Amino acid sequence: MTTLDEERIAALLRSAQVPEPRVDVGRAVRDGRRRRQRRRVGGVAAVTVLAGLGVVGVVELDGLASPKAPARPAVAASPTAVASAAAAQPVTCEASWLPQPIGGSVAVANGVDPTGRYIVGDIGTGNEDGRVVLWTDGRAGVLPAGARHAAAVNARGDVVGTDGGGTGWVYRNGKLRFLATPPGYQAVLVYAVNGRGDIAGTASGAGESRQAVLWSADRPQEYRLIGRPGSAATAITEDGTVVGSMDRLPYRWTPEGTGAALAVPDGYPHASVDSAHGGWAIGMVPGERKGGAVQMLPVRWNLSTGAVILLPFPGASGIAGTGDLLVDDGAPLVVAPDGTSRRLPGRPEVRATEAGTYTASGISDDALTVVGAVYENEAYRPLVWRCRR
């Protein structure tokens, strides 16, 4: 990347209008987005889970008028053409394979804990037969068959997810336990777990009834409802801040339970929150409708200030505790809050991204560990990128 390219990306990140936090926003897009990496490489399994829970993806907004969105900031240099910014950000990265303890043509790493030690993923054929795999310091272990569709792993190695029937689960200290479904609701969808073992998710019931829920990894049969009916939780930070939605507005709750709406970029009537780490969160706003589907555009929140910015990239698949964005476009890119960036290298035996299509779905809090997969020869193979300063 040239100095000029760096300056352009930085200028784009700074130029988006950042309104003060407000609550008078329009109807939010439908909640319930599953993690993006499943849509990319594990679509069959994810669609089955979502259909069973009655969840509608935000790219399928039948009956919801697409807003006339303002022009999206143009990307000065296409992300696929951007090279590593070693001069501006002295970070070097190297890709290595993750071992596959079982066979399967769809083997992906889709989550990493904040320290970069634990990595979670799935291996199967893509036909509802996937098994959850936990890599600890590079060593692979297969979770019990009852653990399906892992969502996240924390710094203690606790893994959480939701099985195909809408039951939440936690795998801790070698034991698989199931989470309580609150009375009055039919299923839950688990999204995240922090280092304290707080598990965040959403309970769903008849019609479109739902409510944000917190469980404990130590006491999975106990739970606490967050907000009011109509709320949803999609992420939780290490300090216990929960993000999600309330009455179709993007929302956050402090560890003490105090809630407030998050801002939405000017000109966009609603937004969804996807994940959060440290003082940052990412999500999506609906753009133009194309071919019957709404084009979703990525946004980033600074949870400390409440500021929101529309991002000049095709998508953001992760956010580090440092605020670094993981941009997943077939050749992943890590972009710092100041706009400097680095392109992740290709598979171990290739000097650059010359072969295969890459997906990157998880990033550690220090932005130095990234996990994902490469697709080539009609199969996915899991990768980890380790970086150092």
From TrEMBL:
<keyword id="KW-0812">Transmembrane</keyword>
<feature type="transmembrane region" description="Helical">
    <location>
        <begin position="41"/>
        <end position="59"/>
    </location>
</feature>
<keyword id="KW-1133">Transmembrane helix</keyword>
<protein>
    <recommendedName>
        <fullName>Extracellular repeat, HAF family</fullName>
    </recommendedName>
</protein>
<keyword id="KW-0472">Membrane</keyword>
